[in-house]
Amino acid sequence: AANPAFIRAHLNLGVCQVKLGKLAEARASFDHALDLDPSNEQARQYVTALETLRSRPSQPAPLGPLRPPE
Questions:
Q1: On the CB side of 28, how many CA atoms lie within 13 Å of its CA?
Q2: Are 15 and 66 spatial neighbours (Cβ–Cβ below 8 Å)?
Q3: Measured in Å, how far apart are the chain's first and last C-alpha atoms?
Q4: Which of 14, 21, 34, 44 could lock onto 29 through a cystine, CB 3.0 to 4.6 A?
């Protein structure tokens, strides 16, 4: 079984990538977390928030839901 700590690392990486404006890379990090654990609700929420952000590139980034996992 996959180590959940690795999932957390991919989520943290994705959040950092969003903050740097690297949205495609962030999506890949979140997708990798979902590959490791398809039921990971936090990864799903990050993907949803990221897609919302990508659909409104001219508006400020709503980073509220994109915080590192606890």
A1: 5
A2: yes
A3: 21
A4: 14
Q: CA torsion angle for 12, 14, 15, 21 (degrees, to 10)?
A: 150
CA distances from 3 to 17, 23, 28, 49 (A): 22, 25, 19, 25
Q: Which amino acid is at 63?
A: L
pLDDT in tens, 7-37: 999 999 999 999 898 999 999 999 999 999 9
Q: Could you count the other beta carbons within 10 Å of the beta carbon of residue 61?
A: 16
Query: If pLDDT is split at 50, 70 and 90, which confidence band does 5 have?
Result: confident
Residue 12 amino acid letter: N
Alpha helices per DSSP H over 1-70: 4-19, 23-36, 41-55
Give the number of C-alpha atoms closer than 13 A to the C-alpha of residue 42, restricted to the C-beta side.
17
